[in-house]
Amino acid sequence: MTRIYYLAISFLLIFVFPFNVVASGNDYTIGAGDKIQIIVYGEEELTIEELYIDSSGEFDYPYLGQLIALGKTTEQLKAEIIKGLKGDYLVSPKVRVGIVGFRSIFVNGEIKKPGGYEYQPGLTVDKAIALAGGFTERAARKSIYITREDKNEPKNRVSLSHMVSPGDIIVIEQSFF
């Protein structure tokens, strides 16, 4: 009975419950600093448990050589791997690509512990400030700005409930009074 129970739980964890992927995983693009996982079912030598994506965005994959993950969604990378493996290497490859670690966000300015923190799905500005130890006494609580990693825009003033994306830089200004 115990063995069946463990097999059932293993099945659920592997095939039913998704990996740690952003809820809207179809539009999340892989960036430098993310950690991904590539699983090819039944092919242990093609499975990569954790792969850090560096600034080049390239990585070596068995049989396929250099692949580029930077700027692609997990679905796009999965499709590329399936296309490369299908036919010559496998008849019908079953591939799963997931995000297992997100790139950092950065919180600077009038907070107690400025620095980089790992992004978490559902992160808002107020939660990011809490991760960074909260406001200092001199913080201007209504002068909070975000600079997006992937945009060439000036910093934008935001509210505490504003959603944060991986790579964002949050700056809390100093109050004059």
TrEMBL record:
Residue spans crossing the bilayer: none
MF (Gene Ontology): polysaccharide transmembrane transporter activity
All residue ranges annotated as the Soluble ligand binding domain in the record: 105-154
Keywords: Signal
InterPro entries: Poly_export, Poly_export_N, Soluble_ligand-bd
Domain Polysaccharide export protein N-terminal: 24-99
Record protein name field: Polysaccharide biosynthesis/export protein
Source species taxonomy: Bacteria, Pseudomonadati, Pseudomonadota, Gammaproteobacteria, Vibrionales
